[in-house]
Each structure stands twice: as C-alpha cells, then as structure tokens.
What does this fold into?
Amino acid sequence: MSTWISKACPLGFGLILLLAACIPMEGGPSGARSASIMNGQFTVPAPNGYCVDRAASQATERSAVIIMGRCSDRAGVPPAAITATVGAAGSATVLAAGTEALAVYFASANGRAALSRNGQASAVTVQEIGSANGAIVLHLTDRAVGEYWRAVLGVRGRLVTLAVTPPDGQPLSVAEGRALLLRAIAGLRAANADIAT
It folds into this structure.
C-alpha cells in the first residue's frame, strides 16, 4: 500500500452520503452467502465464513446497505462486521477525479469529516491510503469504532463502499482487516463480472 500526495479535489454529495452510511450490527447472520439486489441486477457476496445479516440489511431498487458477519463462532474466520453500501446507477462518476486526487481528499479535514461516524474530522485518523483491484483502500481509526478498513470503488457504474470493522471488544489485526477487505473487493468484482479500472 502507498500514500499519495497531490492537489485536493471536490467530491459529489453522493459519495459523502455513502461514506457516512452506517447501520449497526443487529441480530445474527441469516446463513445466506450473498444478497441479490436491484431486481437481481447486482450481487453482494459474503467472503467465505461470513453470511448476510438480512435483518440488519436494507435494499431498494436504487441503493442498498448489506451487513455481513461470521456465519457462526466456529466459522474459523476472524470476528468482523462487513458492510457493503451500493449507490444508485451512475453514482460511480464521482470517482472520475482519480485515485490520487481522491486519496488527498480523504486525508483532508473535509474528507475525514465525511469518513467520520459523527461528522467530525477530528474523530478520524487516516493510518494509510492506497489502492487495490481498482479500489481506494483506507486504513482508519475512528473514535466511535476504533481501527477499521474501508474501500471505495465503482462496480457496474455504481459507487460502492466496503467497510470491515471489528465487533466491540474483539480484536481484528491489521493483517486480518486488510486481507478480509481485499477478499470482499475481489468477491464483489467477480460476482458482478466487473473489470477493475
């Protein structure tokens, strides 16, 4: 992973909304390995060992927030909440500024405020910004949730954010968080036959 330095860029309101979207983990996973949304035109798969929490997830014909967790305590994978937020058709156009400019934005006060769970830049520390498989990957610390991973990418013209967060009181190492996020990105690309750009 690398950190970029360049000129700041303005972002559309849609990206800020998606970055701020957060639904707390409630209930338990349903056992479903994927969620078919937008009338079957988009699929959000859970990485191996994780299942979709249908009770906590929300979806409409335009957008969705899908929550995933371990299928069971004996799944043999790290405890983590995985959130996939999928925007409306065409929403990925906000990524046209390019990864370098977007990375600078996320490191700025406005970007950190957009990433923050409480809307305050001071609540977020950006540990690392890089890219993988056509996605912007961020390693963050937020006072509300602690250390976690987030990715921002375009899939089939839709803006998608992925977040990997440890449950309260349970550890998730840097290596585990990064690996799980990368698995989620790869799975999303493969399930939607999308080519990383």
Summary: The radius of gyration is 15 Å. The CA atoms of residues 177 and 197 lie 23 Å apart. The helical segments are 13-20, 99-107, 109-115, 174-191. The beta strands are 34-37, 42-45, 50-52, 58-59, 64-70, 81-89, 124-132, 135-142, 146-155, 158-165.
